[in-house]
Amino acid sequence: MNDIISSTASDILTMRVRGAGRIARAGATALATYAENYSGHDLEQFKTDIRNAAEVLLGSRPTAVSLWNGIHSTIKGVESASTLEAARDSVIVNGREFSVASEQAVRKIARIGAKRIKDGDVLMTHCNSSAAIGVIAEAVRQGKDVKVYATESRPWRQGILTVRDLSDAGVDTTLIIDSAVRTVMSRVDRVFVGADTITSSGSLINKVGTSQVCMAASEARAEVNVCSETYKFSPKTMFGDTVTIEERDIGEVIRPGEIPEGVKVFNPVFDTTPAKYIDNIITELGIMSPGAVYGVMVKQLGDSIFDLE
Ligand code: RUB
Predict the structure, then answer these.
(1) Does any ligand 1 atom lie closer than 6 A to the CB of residue 19?
(2) Which is it for strands 197-198 and 147-151: parallel, antiparallel or unpaired?
(3) Which of 108, 146, 233, 258 is most buried, most CB within 10 Å of its CB?
(4) Residue range 222-257, pLDDT digits in tens
(5) Is 227 a catalytic residue?
């Protein structure tokens, strides 16, 4: 397998590249670069090679549908191409277009979401979502005075990245440990989190602990906003597919010899927040309720919806 594919898959697997938007762009860009440097001369061989490359990338992390959507929108023209040049060109163009559109979507979400934030708001965010951070940073850029509580997000502590990002954007930021979420929630007006996948019923799959944050927000009457590009919507869930929740190595949670032999460790990386705990999903197409997700999926898919079942 070509270097760019295996090194990108390894970067995603080991979380050197992480976050649903970033891994989708990395996958799409890797395929475009692979096609650009392809030295073979046979169309059928290229089709096989690109399918295999897509499989390797898809195997790197299982939960975020953004990766699946990024890869599939990059290779969508390959099967029907009648020349090697057309097949390669479609991968190059689609991959680059996906990445550009993805970055534009994040910027648009920032502008739309910032309007939901009022001067003086106290906010909370969980893990490290570029879409959610973009919204908060944009509100502050517009001159709104906000205070943000950011969770540590054990075991990878992506919260450290978040407080650095927010601090760089001039945001008044406080780091809290994950178990302090409910204690602090009584001071919070609005929660902003990202998304790895959104199902057809409007449920959210995001960093483990997101469901606790959203339930605590619901109890405290704080508004829950999910910042999500629409390529994080999973149309396959319309037809009964479920989302695989990634489990990672226990070495991320405990040090060797730290706990008695025989004690098990469970390290799920994401969790599901039911739609009833979500007030708004902020997308590049605008703000919608979780109940509107199904309609957007149907509209975006058009006739290709029938290929999914
Ligand atoms: C990251 C995470 C983020 C979403 C959205 O988990 O759960 O909230 O991926 O991020 P991990 P973004 O660190 O395990 O990848 O808005 O940047 O796409």
Answers:
(1) yes
(2) unpaired
(3) 233
(4) 999 999 999 999 999 999 999 999 999 999 999 999
(5) no
